[in-house]
């Protein structure tokens, strides 16, 4: 049973390509969740880790182009500690995918079991294409305690899903951005669900109909996608889910959806723990 869900960002980026917010947002975040439950603490996505910021192992070009803050107080570890917990208290990590800005913090929690969709782990290890060689940094997660997940026949509001830590935390396969990209559904203590959509979309306007997206983000998604057809189809499924189960829909199972990098979506959930 989930007793609290904390929202925070494990990265702060002010991309050079924003052009005052005309092409991209002036600020991008790395939205993470810390879930308190009967199984201890579960971290959903990890942003950049301590060693990433100390050694700039994400690459100088990325750090400068994204104008990534190197302040260690932005890491998931720092946020966990600020909430009164230690790294050892985090027993499970669930990642939407293993891109460098989602998996960097894994090494800060060496005792945690890391849950990821099996297709994603295989892609990250193989790094078969030039793009995958850039997006995956094995040093971030080489020593992780992996528990790869495959589809187990469960369903969640019309989506295939995989029960992870308990029936309250689910991996929802949503490939396209990467070969094994997933969303993560977390049951809210007050009822309904949070859905961390990862990088299935980038602009809050993409979850409504008709969708809107800043041109720089639209181009970036196209540039980074591994399966265009699947990515576009899954965005459409998310729009349907938001229309039928989003806040204000009147549905019995209300789903509060957000992506990984939208600062407005994170700000709307600041201080929300239920």
Structural commentary:
- The chain has helices at 50-55, 60-65, 76-82, 100-103, 118-126, 130-135, 215-224, 228-245, 263-268, and strands spanning 2-13, 28-37, 40-44, 90-94, 113-117, 145-149, 154-156, 159-166, 169-173, 182-187, 193-196, 255-258.
- The chain is globular and about 50 Å long.
- The chain has one domain: Metallo-beta-lactamase, Chain A.
- Helices cover 26% and strands 26% of the residues.
- The chain is α/β, with parallel strands linked by helices and 274 residues long.
- Strands 1-2-3-4-5-6 form a 6-stranded mixed sheet. Strands 7-8-9-10-11-12 form a 6-stranded mixed sheet.
- The longest helix has 18 residues, at 228-245.
- The two termini are 12 Å apart.
Low-confidence stretches: none
Largest sheet: 6 strands, mixed
CATH class: Alpha Beta
CATH superfamily: Ribonuclease Z/Hydroxyacylglutathione hydrolase-like
Instruction: Tell me the helix content.
Output: 25-40%
Structural class: alpha/beta
CATH architect. name = 4-Layer Sandwich
């Amino acid at each position: 049973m989930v007793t609290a869900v904390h929202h925070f960002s494990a990265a702060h980026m002010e991309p050079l390509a924003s052009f005052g917010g005309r092409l991209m947002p002036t600020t991008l975040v790395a939205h993470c969740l810390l879930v308190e439950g009967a199984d201890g603490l579960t971290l959903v996505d990890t942003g950049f880790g301590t060693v990433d910021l100390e050694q700039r192992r994400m690459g100088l070009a990325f750090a400068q182009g994204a104008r990534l803050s190197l302040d260690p107080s932005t890491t998931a570890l720092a946020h966990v500690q600020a909430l009164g917990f230690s790294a050892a208290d985090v027993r499970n990590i669930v990642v939407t995918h293993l891109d460098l800005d989602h998996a960097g913090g894994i090494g800060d929690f060496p005792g945690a079991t890391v849950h990821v969709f099996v297709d994603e782990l295989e892609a990250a290890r193989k790094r078969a294409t030039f793009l995958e060689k850039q997006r995956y940094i094995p040093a971030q997660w080489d020593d992780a305690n992996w528990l790869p997940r495959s589809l187990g026949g469960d369903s969640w509001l019309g989506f295939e899903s995989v029960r992870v830590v308990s029936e309250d935390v689910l991996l929802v396969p949503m490939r396209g951005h990467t070969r094994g990209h997933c969303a993560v559904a977390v049951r809210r203590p007050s009822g309904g669900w949070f859905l961390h959509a990862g990088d299935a979309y980038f602009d809050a306007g993409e979850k409504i109909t008709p969708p809107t997206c800043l041109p720089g983000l639209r181009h970036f998604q196209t540039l980074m996608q591994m399966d265009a057809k699947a990515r576009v189809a899954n965005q459409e499924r998310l729009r349907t889910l938001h229309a039928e189960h989003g806040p204000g829909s009147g549905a019995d199972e209300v789903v509060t959806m957000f992506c990984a990098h939208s600062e407005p979506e994170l700000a709307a959930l600041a201080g929300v723990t239920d």
